[in-house]
């Protein structure tokens, strides 16, 4: 199996092929998604919420994320693994971004990094790309800026669509190999996707993006409670796991497990 390259994603766009991306934070899901044919895996800073139990993505650090990046990269043979630069690790400018990006490739072993911001991050994207670190950009709703944006809200409605387009052009011009569009109107995502040569990856951005991304615990129904509108639940892992754990505990209490076949 050959590793998926950023170039393959550009060629897929030329052919009009769509593809799915998922987050992964550990060995088992990484190997499973890789084997299932997911071409791009993101070790998201959403590990803040989905692994470490923080309320937002803001607290997670480079030192917390790098071991997860290593685990996911080691467990895959084919997927392009993207490591997400956490809040505070790149915003000071190209020098800081480059320092962090190089750590992700050297210590994490991933093949690309992702960072948030359009025009404001263009210089960092250019420095990273020039230095050999491929960058996936992320515009529209950017969770690391939630306190400035006023919570989880659709970006680029009405006249603000021009801002999304300007950000998209800026990241493409700076050398990003792809761009995540989060919570933007479907029509805006469609326009960006048609205008750019690089693939767009939607999350809450409608059906016209080149790729789609979801947090795996959301799409697999491990997370409980109300999910955002853009999430589709393809399984109910929460119920599956709850039932398994309950049955195990019950069988231990009742002396049913372990049985003779589990005993030396
Ligand atoms: O951290 C993350 O999971 C993400 C994706 C959902 C795009 O940034
Ligand atoms: Na993220």
Automatic annotation (TrEMBL):
Binding-site residues for Mg(2+), renumbered to this chain: 45, 84, 116
Source species: Hamadaea flava
Family assignment from sequence similarity: Belongs to the PanB family.
Active site annotation, chain numbering: 182 (proton acceptor)
Protein name stated in the entry: 3-methyl-2-oxobutanoate hydroxymethyltransferase
Purpose of the protein: Catalyzes the reversible reaction in which hydroxymethyl group from 5,10-methylenetetrahydrofolate is transferred onto alpha-ketoisovalerate to form ketopantoate.
Enzyme class: transferase
Chief place of localization: cytoplasm
Top-level taxon of the source organism: Bacteria
Pathway per the UniProt entry: Cofactor biosynthesis; (R)-pantothenate biosynthesis; (R)-pantoate from 3-methyl-2-oxobutanoate: step 1/2
Entries under InterPro entries matching the protein: Pantoate_hydroxy_MeTrfase, Pyrv/PenolPyrv_kinase-like_dom, Pyrv_kinase-like_dom_sf
Keyword flag Transferase: yes
Gene: panB
